[in-house]
Design brief:
mainly alpha
């Protein structure tokens, strides 16, 4: 027979709480404190519930992080089967949007990037329809998709790190002799003037064009 006292001690669902609210609270905390601040006690305090009650909505920390990452992807411009734009334009728009989401959540990206999928049937149908219009072979289309996502991740991480490191570089230059400082300042200025957004998009288009040409 179950112990009535034990049953009373188990936290049940918090009133008017949902998985979406738990995930949203995690994202709010991450925006303020970084990923290190995201833990169940902090989320419980944010929502005004016992942190143990959160396990009703997320299985564990990994499930929470996956939910947070999925939420960042919800605003992506996903290709649709009836989209009138050329397939390459659809994929470029998707990956540009994906890169922006990555750059806004670099810490989270490192933990769950391997789980980047478009799981809803409608989203997956649109993505694969666009891919297969460029590379008709399914295996090659899958390889192209993987490579494009990795390119997107790499560009997002590099750009985010460069922007974060800029104040550190400026401070370090001040300690150098004038001749070296002048040369490195010119180099840093040239790197700063690179439009990484345009470079990323042009690289995507070149990769898609090459994939289409090789499939003819």
């Amino acid at each position: 027979m179950a112990d009535p006292a034990a049953a009373r001690r188990r936290p049940g669902p918090a009133r008017s709480l949902s998985r979406e609210q738990v995930v949203a609270a995690g994202l709010e905390i991450m925006a303020r404190e970084g990923l290190k601040g995201v833990h169940f006690r902090a989320i419980g305090m944010r929502l005004g519930v016992d942190h143990k009650a959160l396990y009703t909505y997320v299985a564990d920390k990994d499930d929470l992080l996956t939910g947070m990452f999925d939420a960042t992807l919800s605003a992506l411009e996903l290709p649709q089967r009836e989209d009138p734009r050329p397939p390459a334009d659809q994929l470029v728009a998707l990956l540009v949007s994906l890169r922006k989401a990555f750059m806004a959540n670099v810490d989270l990206l490192h933990l769950v990037a391997s789980k980047v999928t478009f799981s809803t049937e409608r989203a997956a149908e649109g993505v694969w329809s666009a891919l297969l219009a460029i590379v008709p072979d399914l295996d090659r289309a899958a390889e192209l998709y993987t490579n494009l996502v990795q390119l997107t991740i790499g560009s997002a991480v590099e750009t985010a790190r460069y922007r974060v490191a800029e104040p550190v570089r400026t401070s370090a230059l001040a300690a150098l002799d004038p001749h070296t400082q002048a040369r490195l300042t010119a180099y840093a200025r040239a790197m700063t003037n690179i439009d990484r957004d345009k470079l990323f998009e042009s690289t995507l288009r070149a990769a898609l064009h090459a994939a289409a040409e090789s499939s003819k």
